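call fold(seq) -> tokens
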Amino acid sequence: MPLQALIVLFIALPVLELALLFKLHGLVGFVPTVGLVLLTGVAGAMLVRRQGISILFAIQREMAEGRLPAPQMIDGVMILLAGALLVTPGLVTDSVGFALLIPRLRTRIRLWLKRRIEQKIRSGQWQVHVGRGRS
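ret:
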């Protein structure tokens, strides 16, 4: 991960989150602001749990049918990331977290990732080495 991305992730994002929470506090007051943070955390945790269980069943079903559950595994990672974002106090992280719980958006992200990986492999930026499996 480039240095600029780390700076944004660990410095700029928390500052932005605090600024937005202070702005919201100024508009609606302390109790509603804290209530919103708590509500999004609880609602997010419930949604993540439900979708996570659903993805686990989908992964088990695919494996039982002899198929590699790659799309479901990627969805699982995105749902896990959504959960982490939703328990992090802040409006931006909550918005991104809730967005990752939308199945259509996850599908679009998964397809974008696939194209991006294929592009890097075709351009030679990434190399794929296929070895023999262990016996």
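The chain has a mean pLDDT of 90.
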